[in-house]
Design brief:
- With 270 residues, this protein is an alpha/beta fold.
- The protein has a domain of 171 residues: P-loop containing nucleotide triphosphate hydrolases (Rossmann fold).
- 32% of the residues lie in helices and 23% in strands.
- The strands form two sheets. Strands 6-7-8-3-9-10 form a six-stranded mixed beta sheet, sandwiched between helices. The protein has a four-stranded antiparallel beta sheet with strand order 2-1-4-5, covered by helices on one side.
Length: 270
């Protein structure tokens, strides 16, 4: 099966994705397209299939049917490592940071740099100086100014700063796609604003971002397009310019339907 042809090839695409858990249907023939340099928000009520969808793209779940494509090439993710090798990084709501380690060690968690020669090859000694230097460069390139001391333990950081560490780790190794699951959950107003600014910066750097969020004002602030999920299906794809927050909520609940001809299935020109 080949990916449907469009003017711009989606960097990440799902066609007819199906995932069931016994008699429970998580995904029911979902189509989704993510284009380069865009923020695609995925919204929906609890049980709409949002988490199942991102777990398929992150390699945590394998779809029962359907196809996934990266840059037009069909892929199968049997693990999160396979997704990462294709440039797809995911930041889950639990963050998965190691509180006792410093910022640099967290950025290279599972990808540690070893010292050259016998120290690294035989004794497996880590090159902490190189990791700290490169981690500092990554943070500087991302414009993250809230993390000044690269040797600071993550357990001493605020919630927003921990989120910045997790996003920075994804951005450092996610060459194409970054999936963010509720990145502003339990954060204050100022910290949420910093995370949203970081998402916009990632998009401006050319990365494609999938944002899972229940916070509708934040979705409308940063999203280029909004994928509305309902009962395991794609109910509609709209934009903050074409539909209001009340419209999106109505689509989520089934009170409103949008004809396919009126949906924003192609990338938005900014």
């Amino acid at each position: 099966m080949t990916a449907p042809t469009t003017t711009i090839t989606p960097v990440l695409q799902g066609v007819g994705l199906v995932k069931t858990f016994g008699r429970v249907v998580g995904l029911d023939g979902v189509n989704i397209e993510l284009y380069p340099s865009e923020v695609l928000a995925v919204v929906g009520d609890n049980g709409a299939g949002k988490s199942t969808l991102i777990k398929c793209f992150s390699g945590a779940h394998t779809p029962d049917a359907g196809d996934m494509f990266v840059n037009g090439e069909r892929v199968e993710f049997k693990s999160t490592n396979e997704a990462r090798r294709h440039g797809v990084e995911t930041v889950f709501q639990t963050l998965a940071v190691a509180p006792a380690l410093d910022i640099a060690s967290n950025l290279y968690l599972g990808r540690e740099i070893r010292k050259p020669g016998i120290l690294g090859n035989v004794f497996r000694t880590l090159d902490k100086k190189a990791m700290r230097h490169q981690a500092s460069d990554h943070l500087k390139n991302l414009g993250i100014s809230t993390l000044q001391n690269i040797t600071q333990a993550v357990e001493t950081l605020s919630g927003g700063q921990r989120q910045a560490v997790a996003v920075a780790r994804a951005a450092a190794f996610g060459s194409q796609v970054i999936i963010l699951d509720e990145p502003t959950a339990a954060l204050g107003v100022n910290e949420s604003a910093r995370v949203l600014k970081m998402i916009q910066d990632l998009r401006d750097r050319g990365l494609a971002v999938i944002l899972i969020s229940h916070n509708m004002p934040q979705v409308f602030e940063v999203a280029d397009r909004i994928h509305v999920a309902r009962l395991g299906k794609r109910a509609a794809v709209v934009t903050p310019q074409s539909h209001s927050m009340n419209d999106v909520v109505a689509i989520m609940t089934g009170a409103m339907t949008v004809p396919e001809a009126e949906q924003q299935l192609s990338p938005v020109t900014r």
